[in-house]
Amino acid sequence: MAEFDLAVLRDGNRRALAKAITVVESSRDDDRDRAQAILEQCLPHTGNSIRVGITGIPGVGKSTFIEAFGLHLLAQGKRVAVLAVDPSSPIAGGSILGDKTRMEELSRRQEAFIRPSPAAGALGGVAQKTRETMLLCEAAGYDVILVETVGVGQSEYQVAGMVDFFMVLMLPNAGDELQGIKKGIMELADALVINKADGDSLNLAEQTRRHYKAAMGLLRHAPHWEPRVTTCSSIEGRGVTDVWSMIGEFEQAARECGAFSARRDNQARDWMHQLIGEMLKARLRNNPEAQRLLPELEARVLARELTPYTAACRVLDCL
Amino acid sequence: MSDDPIYDKDAATPDSWAALATKQMKGLAPDELTWITPEEIRLRCLYTAEDIADLPYTNTMPGMSPYIRGPQATMYAGRPWTIRQYAGFSTAEESNAFYRKALAAGGQGISVAFDLATHRGYDSDHPRVAGDVGKAGVAVDSIEDMKILFDGIPLDKVSVSMTMNGAVLPVLAGYIVAAEEQGVGQEQLSGTIQNDILKEFMVRNTYIYPPAPSMRIIGDIIAYCSEHMPRFNTISISGYHIQEAGANAALELAYTLADGKEYIRTAIAAGLDIDQFAPRLSFFWGIGMNFYLEIAKMRAARMLWARIVSEFNPQNPKSSMLRTHSQTSGWSLTEQDPYNNVVRTTIEAIALPSEFAARIARNTQLIIQEETGITQVVDPWGGSYMMESLTNDIADKAWELIEEVENEGGMAKAIESGLPKLRIEEAAAAKQARIDRGEDVIVGVNKYKLNHEDEVEILEIETEAVREAQLKRLAEIRATRDQASVDDILTQITRVAGGEEGNLLALSIEAIRRRATVGEISDAMEKEFGRFKASAQTVSGVYGAAFSEDQGWKEIAGDIDAFVEKHGRRPRMLVCKMGQDGHDRGAKVVATAFADVGFDIDLSPMFSTPEEVARQAIENDVHAVGASSLAAGHKTLVPQLVEQLKKQGGEDIIVIAGGVIPRQDYDVLYDAGVKCIFGPGTPIPQSAREVLNAINQIQGG
After folding, report:
1. Global pTM?
2. A275, B171, B311, B649: most buried, per Cβ within 10 A?
3. Which residues of A touch B605 (CB under 8 A)?
């Protein structure tokens, strides 16, 4: 594989960005080192985009929304990268990635870059790699980064923890409590957008909006931003522009009070601490002495001969 | 005790037969011979009077409701079916010559196949269709092409069937104006236009607009024709393509009838009375190789249709009669050992598109009609224990599926949810697995294979020449017409599409008279309606489950694990459809099966250009692109894809081609840089193995 060349990536070369993402996503150890070297070169050129997370249950119309939303952003002169995270972990076999089929127009445009990522399998979360991919896209000059994930697992929490603005797409049906979206995720949402507010569903969408507005009012929120509840129709293109102006308002308010950079700082710090935990575990997994000790220590804890604290200290001492 | 010396009535019972059968099978009970069909119907090896004792419709009469035995009292004994051949030969001139010859040789009507660009509402000079003009049918851009197509064919006498669903308005209008300029009035026209858009969203994908405006177009057509063209069938509700996409007989039956029900609702919403249009609805079935089940399907269809129409309170009995034409399945025809197809089409009572093949197909039917005596008896299966029982079984299965669609609010709504398409794709993956495992036998393909395949005569299409001729004619028509008057009518069409009062067919007829083109009329509506984008839903696990214990399959999965170890990710392939060819069954089955064995699979949007596919491949950084071609676009589009990949810096991405590609074209593709070519009938595990090997070779595995 050709060596990474930052100038080529910065120049907007699609192939260079695509290949760098592959290295970041690779499960090989030596690729981890290469990825870090690439990211370190990119780092001075990152942070200039607005990062938007989009989640929702299957069938809510995330891709159709992104198609309409992305095209609107291009019309505003923005360059848009779409990263689609597949959180599924099939027992056997690979992923089927059909995201581009639902973003037909956007996928043809020069100013857009769409990259769906397959499920990573057992090793590491795919979302983790999305953080790094996001940095690559920023270095390649994309102004808006949309991270899409289906809201059925853990991936939406991870996505919420890596973006500036996090929104949950909903369907117009007021009666169904929370539509399978966990309450915890609502607390993280900066906006709920009720999609498919068109045709027969217009009134229902408005009812749904009021319903969620009332529910969201009960949740705690940051002083600079009260989460919004809006409606839109991706098919008719209505309400999509409002979502972008809302994000604009949010960005302005958050920047003015310093919450914008504070959130990014927190995310970077959390990310680091999370990595420390994961890497420690990985090192213990690969440490023969620790692996040898573990069963014995476990047995002694169960026999009440050792406290769990002492046992944990002994394992860590192996490092 | 019976006094008949050769028949003991009391002894001849199902139980005593079962005992005898078990003895003859050396202890194997006859139940073991029961075949569970793909529809999950238990086809037993013997049926008796007991099986039909409680069935409701075993004593009905032909020509009377519920029409199980046929809509006409005397059926084919009175008048045999009309023989038509589906043909479209790239240019209007060649097609016209073919129709004339076929009519002279005993054909009784003509059937027009249009090229892919026309289907999708593009003129031949549109940049997206460079590889599609003249493919799979005749290129029609304007009234000038239509006039040549029907030259010398008396449209007041010859019935014309047109396979058109997407660009249905300009094409139907073109036919009407061609007749008009021949001096034939609209009221004299007889024939059928397919106009069945719902199935396009489920299977063939030759739609233009989204479901709602597409249904409105159908309402306008039915309204116009029921007033002006009483002898013309405005819609041919097609199960054929559903079966071709891999659906089993129950799914084909159910979804076709559910489509029919939705069209009734559309026409009623357009202000018509059921009896004004229902007698002009006709159906179109695919006929596969499962002899008994196919007959049961058609008998059940008539009864279920009568049941569906009865909900709308028809007064005219003709409203409830299911009229149909059938076409033998292209699925069952094989590329391998192609002369077997002659036998297959006889059983299914059309073939490879050469003139010789067309003659064989026509004569097969003429022999059935005029030599065998088959048509002498109306519904010869009536009263058969097996057939009556099977008719009831399949009707029940189909009704369950129809109710499922109704619960979603009818077919147009169900299509939006994607459920019917998923069910068909599931059936297709299961069918492919059965064929690849040899459970469904196809002689010459997965059993009794030939060691050496002879070359077969195939019609070669000089696409570039066809396109040049079309471009010339388009330039002429645009130079000689009154442009202001064309612009005026096109603006009116856009306005009416946007909600102003008016009938889109009436306006399209006027636009064609003023020499507007198919593409211009389609664009005028697209301004309001938009173009429909299909979202890809895929099934997973269905194909792989059938192979979970297969040694070869496990070996491939194991080699993929080794690949992941070595390269840090799974082998990744983009499965694409290029050009206007909408047949995506093959692509979908390959996608789901390859994912099941361990590939990561990306899907391209339908109707992509080679340039767009190359870009998608690079963006997703795949190892391979698999191009599926079923409509003769391979010789232009696939080499262009290889070029584009090089141009965009993806020279290490290999290209694989699959689908209907004649053997004599293989070398052209290999020379262009294609690594593997898989014809129809290649078992998927074999192709997965070869693709993995090819990727390994270039990636240094």
Report:
1. 0.85
2. B171
3. 100-101, 104, 107
